[in-house]
Amino acid sequence: EKKLTNEESSGLGRRRFMNSAALAGLTLGVAACAEKKSEGAPAAAGSAPAATAHGGGNASHLKPGELDSYYGLWSGGHTGDVRVLGLPSGREILRIPCFNPDALVGWGITNESKKVMGTKADGSLRYTVADTHHVHASYKDGNYDGRYAWVNDKINSRIARIRLDYFVCDKITELPNVQGFHGIFPDKADPVDPKINYTTRVFCGGEFAIPLPNTGTEDSSKYRSLFSCVDAETMEVRWQVLIDGNCDLVATSYDGKLAATNQYNTEMGAKYEDMMSAERDACLFFNVARIEAAVKAGKFKTYGDSKVPVVDGTRESNKDPKTALTAYVSVPKNPHGVNASPDAKYFICAGKLSPTATVIELAKVLDYFDGKLESADKAIVAEVELGLGPLHTAFDGRGNAYTTLFLDSQVVKWNVDAAIKFHGGDKSAKYVVDRLDVQYQPGHLNASQSETRAADGKYLAVGCKFSKDRFLPVGPLHPENEQMIDISGDKMVLMADHPVRGEPHDFIIFKRELVKPKQVYALEDFPLAVKDPKESGVERNGKKVTVRLTSQAPAFSMREFKLKKGDEVTLILTNLDKVEDLTHGFAIPKYNVNFIVNPLETASVTFVADKPGVFWCYCTHFCHALHLEMRTRMIVE
Ligand code: CUK
Ligand code: CUA
Ligand code: CA
Q1: 619 lines ligand 2 (CB under 6 A)
Q2: Would you call 350 exposed, middle or buried from its count of C-beta atoms within 10 A (0-12, 13-18, 19+)?
Q3: Could you list the residue ranges forming a coiled coil in this record (predicted)?
Q4: Which CATH number fits domain 10-37+77-514: 3.40.190.10, 2.130.10.10, 3.40.50.12780, 3.90.1150.10?
């Protein structure tokens, strides 16, 4: 039965569920939404003045020399990278290339980065496109521990790991048997061993169903999606679960026992009309301990060339809750995000095509697996209307949730306990606390520390998919608008707009003390390091030639080196400058080589010296008053 908030009963009722026709209309209406608020939505608090909450100034305007108090890790969308922002200022500090080549640092050019990215037999990169959506970091005791972050590549089903000591990508794994790897979430503890109170697994949701093995069958009723578990340290795929329906986003419980994915295509349709035909889809829970016991007991299959064990999580095979690996909790029409509340009690699924959020109590899901709940759906403790197009939810640690309303272009702040009371029949429970217009069409949002036990309720960032009129026009391609909102008070207050290059999805925001970045590398971490300028030189072994050199401002250790046409050259460069911020570049004209070496970093490139002549290899990264003079001659005879 539909449940309306007292505040909204008139407005939302008639627009409750979207059918195909309504969705098509709303999609076309997106452009108009910016100017014209969908009628029926209550007047929002967005007209409030800019934030003055912190000592009279706008906290997003830092004085020169002032540092931000939070880091933000942003996915870069189909630029394939991860961005590092300082918050609340919103200043972009770094882009971390992961899946796609990057011209600044030489990612995809150096042998070291190519090894991480993956190459074909001829040494060229296996892929040069990617689509990153979700960034999440490793946990300890329910908070980030500053070891790693992970990000997905939806296009080629890869997961990349970022070391948070150097802010670089160090490993990439391609998931077998899946397409459209979308949601990702690290676990926060081990389900069995209480000593392991930190991340050892990363869960990955496969969104697009495919034939298993992928033979090119047209009959889509045979297609399947899998849920995968990757080892946080080795980055190997530990196991997969065959499921009914698909996976979208992923959440994990604080006790390590449960992971879940929201499912929008329980219909297993191949066309969108089919994908939205059912009134309810699901939030699919995984019993991690039971899955691992099944793998241990050999109750799995493998597909094609993959050796990864795949257990059976389908509805048919998991009817008895006491042995089930999975539990399908029904959620209205094509839900989108699934988010874990910082009190560790609930997962919340946003309705997307239903104007609702569904609150699922994790203790009850565990009861279901113990055979103490008559159906998995009894774990739903609230299902309340929020507005049109709810997508993602963040938390402030004070019992409030913040959900983006894509179609209404709003963030709605609502109280979870009040929503549970309202759902339980107390119609006087006012669960909607506040609404704020955002500019425009928000996708993800996240609050400072939101996805940890230490949610602090200070700042909320909202990733608006359309910026329209908020920045100077620059032709057809618009930036996205990441908005900063002060959530420390009762009312949300818009602090700032930040243009970002397309097109981030998810992000996390955490206190700066939680990471301890190193700004100078350790020489001995690089097996190829040229530790002394005296080790420089050209070593010939038939056609294979190794060039070793070092950089120390304002010179490379060799002023020239000679090669013969046709040589297969590996050039190794170690930056012996150990001063923070002293990076050198190395470009070889006409050879398509340019990369950087940070303090005490070693990098190498391999190429065939196929063009005779003199080539001034020069430092591309401004380093010294004699930066322009910092060159070496490569002479190819
Ligand atoms: S999905 Cu992009 S707005 Cu890939 Cu996280 Cu929801
Ligand atoms: Cu070295 Cu510029
Ligand atoms: Ca559906």
Answers
A1: yes
A2: buried
A3: none
A4: 2.130.10.10
Complex prediction ipTM: 0.96
Name the residue of 181, 204, 250, 336 whose CB sits within 8 Å of the most ligand 1 atoms, as the mutation to test its pocket.
Answer: 336
**Average of pLDDT values for 154-176?**
98
Helix (H, G, I), strand (E, B) or coil at 82: strand
Pocket flag, ligand 1, residue 78 (CB < 6 Å): no
Residue 628 dihedral angles phi and psi, to the nearest 5°: -65, -30
Instruction: Identify which of 180, 149, 252 has the alpha carbon closest to the alpha carbon of residue 515.
Output: 149
* Cβ-contact 336, 342 below 8 angstroms: no
- Ligand 2 center to 633 CA (angstroms): 15
| pLDDT given at position 16 | 53
Ligand nearest to the CA of 597: 2
Fold of 523-636: Immunoglobulin-like (2.60.40)
Domains of the chain, by residue range, sit at 10-37+77-514, 523-636
Q: Are 162 and 221 in contact (CB under 8 A)?
A: no
Task: Mark 80-108 as b/e (b = at least 16 C-beta within 10 Å).
Answer: bbbbbbbbbbbebeebbbbbbbbeebbbb
Q: Please give the Cα distance from 200 to 419 (Å, whole number).
A: 34
134 lines ligand 1 (CB under 6 A): yes
Q: Are strands 310-312 and 280-287 parallel, antiparallel or unpaired?
A: unpaired
pLDDT at 124 > cutoff 60: yes
Task: Write the pLDDT tens digit of every residue in 457-482.
Answer: 999 999 999 999 999 999 999 999 99
